[in-house]
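Risk register update: the risk of archive-format incompatibility is retired. Evidence:
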Amino acid sequence: MNTLRNKVQLIGNLGNDPEIITLESGKKLAKFSLATNEHYKDKDGQKQTKTDWHNIVAWNKTVDIIEQYVSKGKEVAIEGKLSTRSYEDKEGQKRYTTEVIVNELLLL
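Archived output:
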């Protein structure tokens, strides 16, 4: 059961082109937003769609695949883990963000 701890699986479409960042150490990371849709019927029987946006971060060899094959609008499946971190914005306010760190990526 330990392999089920902090595991996220999502299928969705990229909301923007991935941002590829090369760090001073030479490591690369990719950041992008992923939209997932949930379809349901409201109380009047009308079809509705709820879209959730997820912040995605990928490292290492996965970045090479993303850089070459993934762009805005593409559908992908990802498996990874949730990670929450804090940072200070330009006004000095402490902010928190939750991201999905990619372990596996599947192009659909």
